[in-house]
């Protein structure tokens, strides 16, 4: 695995790979890798000839009161993990490499889909995500780029950006990897105490409950959401920020579950803000 810090060097290495006819798979990350990241890299390895992974804690996607300064980092551990799953190029740019002096260009998906769910409590977050992802896609020029389904809204917003800007890349969503008990893997799980970690299991339990409710014929989104919220809040230690039933592509609210529907939840558990979701596919 080759570790590269500059855009110029990465571009020149990938130009050679492309000239050899290699298919390039790209996994952007903010590091502090866990099994969820490794699943993305393994899938990239299965689908492409050359795998590029970036580690960049992107300042533009953090709000002023968020955890940018405290975001967990472990570059040495990440290096070993990435090499262990067959990554070819690890791109680790400094902030000034990505955002040079006088930087003033942003990419923004406007409208409802970036203002609902996480967009409501994290204004400007998706503008930071789409800006850095557009830049990274522009630098790497991959054939495919892989993102976790855990950040479903991020995935939906990136798909929209790629479609709207006619970017020549296929965006692939990879299933959420869960710890024993169902907690969705996240770098931010490191903020949880043992007790909070146990309490956080109720999020995936509630999403499984939603699946059972739909299976047994319940279709009223409002009723399902209310029951899930109650289940979660009965656990104590957890404060639901949102629990929404929506269209998986547009993220618009859904009233009756008739077609594929996303149930998305965000909750505060101690110092951590956790998100999770389930795609409900009603039996026909
Ligand atoms: O999901 C993440 O880790 C980040 O939002 C991403 C896509 C790497 C952009 O900074």
From TrEMBL:
It comes from the Bacteria. The keyword Transport does not apply. Pathway: Cofactor biosynthesis; (R)-pantothenate biosynthesis; (R)-pantothenate from (R)-pantoate and beta-alanine: step 1/1. It is found in: Cytoplasm. InterPro entries: Pantoate_ligase (IPR003721), Pantoate_ligase_C (IPR042176), Rossmann-like_a/b/a_fold (IPR014729). The reaction proceeds by a bi uni uni bi ping pong mechanism. One of its GO terms (molecular function) is ATP binding. (R)-pantoate binds at residues 61, 154. The lineage of its organism: Bacteria, Bacillati, Actinomycetota, Candidatus Aquicultoria, Candidatus Aquicultorales. It holds the Pfam family Pantoate_ligase. GO terms for cellular component: cytosol. This is Pantothenate synthetase. Its EC number is 6.3.2.1. The gene is panC. Gene3D superfamilies: HUPs (3.40.50.620), Pantoate-beta-alanine ligase, C-terminal domain (3.30.1300.10). PANTHER family: CYTIDYLATE KINASE/PANTOATE-BETA-ALANINE LIGASE, PANTOATE--BETA-ALANINE LIGASE.
């Amino acid at each position: 695995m080759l570790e590269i810090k500059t855009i110029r060097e990465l571009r020149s290495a990938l130009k050679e790979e492309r000239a050899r006819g290699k298919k390039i798979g790209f996994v952007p990350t903010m590091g502090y890798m866990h099994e969820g990241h490794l699943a993305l890299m393994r899938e990239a390895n299965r689908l492409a000839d050359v795998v590029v992974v970036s580690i960049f804690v992107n300042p533009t996607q953090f709000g002023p009161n968020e955890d940018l300064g405290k975001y967990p980092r472990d570059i040495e551990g990440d290096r070993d993990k990435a090499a262990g799953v067959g990554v070819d190029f690890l791109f680790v740019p400094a902030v000034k490499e990505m955002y040079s002096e006088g930087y003033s260009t942003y990419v923004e998906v406007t409208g409802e889909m970036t203002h609902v769910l996480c967009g409501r409590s994290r204004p400007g977050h998706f503008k930071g995500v789409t800006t850095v992802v557009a830049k990274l896609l522009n630098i790497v020029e991959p054939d495919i780029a892989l993102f976790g389904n855990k950040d479903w809204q991020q995935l939906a917003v990136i798909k929209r950006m790629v479609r709207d800007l006619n970017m020549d890349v296929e965006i692939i969503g990879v299933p959420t990897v869960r710890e024993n008990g169902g907690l969705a893997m996240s770098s931010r799980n490191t903020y949880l105490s043992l007790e909070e970690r146990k309490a956080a299991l109720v999020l995936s339990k509630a999403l499984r409950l939603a699946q059972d409710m739909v299976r047994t014929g319940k279709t009223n989104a409002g009723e399902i959401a209310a029951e899930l919220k109650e289940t979660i809040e009965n656990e104590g230690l957890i404060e639901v920020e949102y629990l929404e039933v929506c269209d998986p592509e547009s993220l618009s609210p859904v009233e009756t579950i008739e077609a594929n529907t996303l149930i998305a939840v965000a909750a505060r558990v101690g110092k951590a803000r956790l998100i999770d979701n389930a795609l409900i596919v009603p039996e026909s």
